[in-house]
């Protein structure tokens, strides 16, 4: 990009065009303008409103009392009516655990799937991808109920578990932790597979061949030639899986018998039966903060890895 | 393409089977001659017949399709513009980060928070105009708000794949911007745009939370309707409805795939 | 720029498309918009009203009070509906928030048919804002063959490990389930004493942790589990239990002897109703003794209309699950709105669900 200082603004060469920077950015502004305005109006500003609501008090009947308080935020950390209790932190911890396990299992399952689809003839690849995506289009709640069906006591999966002694006779795998994880994993799998697949499809196999030609063990080939190239897709997959998993509560609730609360449950309760919007807003902010932290961490990792990628891939 | 280790084959196919297992169960029970429960009584298509005659279901389906169609069109246009704007212009680093942040906020924000924000936004805007009353227009706005980011994401990744070489070559040959757009960029971008549109469509069809908070009388959508049915107890009719949705989606996706294949073949 | 023109044109066309598709056919004066619980009124009764008055009825449904409140308050639904059918618990809040208007008793002469027990309720003295619709109870639905003594139903069946008959389901509502535990301990369901509610919470927690507990469900979920045989005991609404259990003599319903909660659903007219006149006509129609009887015979709940009672199906009239005898009625409590004190329940419920 070469620059020439001009009386009316710098001129740059951008994608083969020579134009004034300002004129270019103005046109860029037109492109970006509508979308940006929309998102600011309907998302960014209201989100700020949530921040405000998190700091005021709840009035009777769910109205607002416009007085500042930090009580909602301290309550998210556990300081409630009965003194300090670990309940909220337990809920947060449980949410992170469920989200992490789901993400980890999804990552492991995505590899065979991504490689499998990439190994299909070019024409049928879209069809296979569509096969993975289509279940997403059915209602999530319906799929949860379908799992309840499949995992109920009279059906083969539960009968097998009964025979193996994992569960009592006559009991079902639903409600239970296995049911919850099955539901979460199958719901979020498409989000994990797609980013990984886009990288696997464009994998430079010559590097893999070069590595094995140099007598690298299969594991080293995998780690340095394949994994290194897929890293951006991995990061995207983690982001697109972990974050929705953190906010999900319908599936764990339905398949877990509503026995154990996750953060999403707790938030929904505040906007529901408890009618405590300030506390709900405070919880939402905590959830968002954890989410953004995860995103920031993954971006740092990505930047770090893309700098070292040149070195590793050349192996 | 390299041969695949047989273990990977098995793992992949097994995973796909497990994903489809509950859906197959739903389909199986939609043709079961029992209104509730899990016992097989016999084959019947009567539940589908009942659905066909149910006026409320028809109304709800029309609402859903209308909402999905309108919101997908709008969000695809805005999202594509946004993607082009973010990627093809020399923004300073700070602006770029800010744009990234705002645009990708919906992707990383859980549904319920977006819904809460939208409800707050509409509550304020309603004081200005009754256009923002609960109903189809409000629902469309709500859907577009979260669809745009996903469309932008998909189109941008496609832009990255296309690269700038062709553009630069065209400019070297004195191509004007409209020509560049029409003949070179947009055709190359089309798979990305269609992919983004498909994603937006799927997101709209499956949405419950946001639709619920913005729907007005007579603008119920299928997910809301099904949720209500489920709260009242699963019936074979719900299974039939879900199976229809599944089949319709399969057909839609296949159709889109053939469409995009024809485009890329050209 | 062709792209730009295309965009501008399509955006301009959309509003036209939308207005064409939205239903603006009938004017507000011709319609009555009702917001109520699902499956609460028979189609034939609605048609009868439409024929008698020439008005069109549109019904939107909701599944629980919070949805309803969120819809009316946050989502601006208060201008869209005329008649609201809501639970008694929500009434004081609705009045306080200014969402409903006082009833014009002159327009509803049929109010005189309401039984004495319901015509001056604590939640709305003198029926200034509300008219009773149906009432019922929350109790236990059970499989008779799994119980040692089907005549003696107590909340102990849920909360005492040695008395649990088999797999069971509790209600996923903090007021109802914590309230049941409170009742079992001899306290009021409207208690806001933190220690009492906390102790009730411990009972629920112990029950939840039992391997026989299938979890928490909404009322209908519990009913379905009993029907399919997955559960032997569930906390449910009486109407759901009776409607779904009538074909099976092995299924029973009762209010536990310690008592439980009685609920009354009422009809209200929204403050910003587009057709308040139509709303009043609808309410008056429902309160007509013949129509009230048809309503109750359809949804199997109890009618608050004393002149409908003779017209109720005989088996329902004699069924203690629908019309409890006097000694049971004494043990029943109406749930009051707790205002800010709901926080006690919220914290205890969260604690129960997190451990």
Shape of chain A: flat
Output the structural class of chain C: alpha/beta
DSSP summary: helix tally of chain C: 14
Radius of gyration of chain C: 23 Å
Oligomer: heterotrimer
- The total count of strands of chain A amounts to 7
Strand content of chain A: 5-15%
Q: Output the helix-strand order of chain A.
A: EEEHEEHEEHHHHHHHHHH
- Main sheet characteristics of chain C: 11 strands, mixed
Q: Biggest interface between protein chains, with counts per chain?
A: A-B, 92 and 89 residues
Shape of chain C: globular
What is the succession of H and E elements of chain C?
HEHEHEHEEHEHHEHEHEEHHHHEH
Which band does the percent of strand residues of chain C land in? 15-25%
Taking the sheet with the most strands of chain A, its summary is: 3 strands, antiparallel
Instruction: Detail the poorly predicted runs of chain C.
Output: 10-25
Label this structure with key terms.
heterotrimer, A: 315 residues, mainly alpha, three-stranded antiparallel beta sheet, two-stranded antiparallel sheet, 12 helices, flat, disordered C terminus, B: 266 residues, globular
What does this structure look like?
The complex is a heterotrimer of chains A (315), B (266) and C (355). Chain A has 315 residues and is mainly alpha-helical. Chain A is built from 12 helices and 7 strands. In chain A, the strands form 3 sheets. Chain A has a 3-stranded antiparallel beta sheet. Chain A has a two-stranded antiparallel ribbon with strand order 4-5. In chain A, a hairpin with a 6-residue loop joins strand 1 (3-4) and strand 2 (11-14). Residues 1-7 and 306-315 of chain A have low confidence and may be disordered. The two termini of chain B are 24 Å apart. Chain B is globular. Chain C has 14 helices and 11 strands. Chain C is of the alpha/beta class. In chain C, 40% of the residues lie in helices and 18% in strands. Residues 10-25 of chain C have low confidence and may be disordered. Chains in contact: A-B, A-C, B-C.
Task: Give the secondary structure arrangement, pairings included.
The complex is a heterotrimer of chains A (315), B (266) and C (355).
Chain A lengths: L2 E2 L6 E4 L2 E4 H33 L2 E3 L5 E5 L2 H6 L2 E2 L2 E2 L2 H32 L3 H12 L6 H11 L5 H8 L13 H25 L3 H9 L4 H30 L2 H6 L7 H8 L6 H37 L2
Antiparallel strand pairs in A: 1-2, 2-3, 4-5, 6-7
Chain B lengths: L5 H25 L15 H8 L1 H33 L5 H16 L2 H16 L9 H27 L2 H8 L4 H30 L2 H6 L7 H10 L4 H30 L1
Helix pairs in contact in B: 1-11, 2-11, 3-6, 3-8, 4-6, 6-8, 8-11
Chain C lengths: L1 H20 L9 E7 L5 H11 L2 E7 L2 H10 L8 E5 L3 H6 L3 E2 L28 E14 L12 H4 L8 E4 L2 H11 L9 H16 L3 E5 L1 H10 L4 E5 H8 L5 E4 L6 E10 L5 H12 L1 H11 L14 H4 L8 H6 L1 E2 L7 H13 L1
Parallel strand pairs in C: 1-2, 1-3, 6-7, 6-8, 10-11
Antiparallel strand pairs in C: 3-10, 4-10, 5-8, 5-9, 5-10
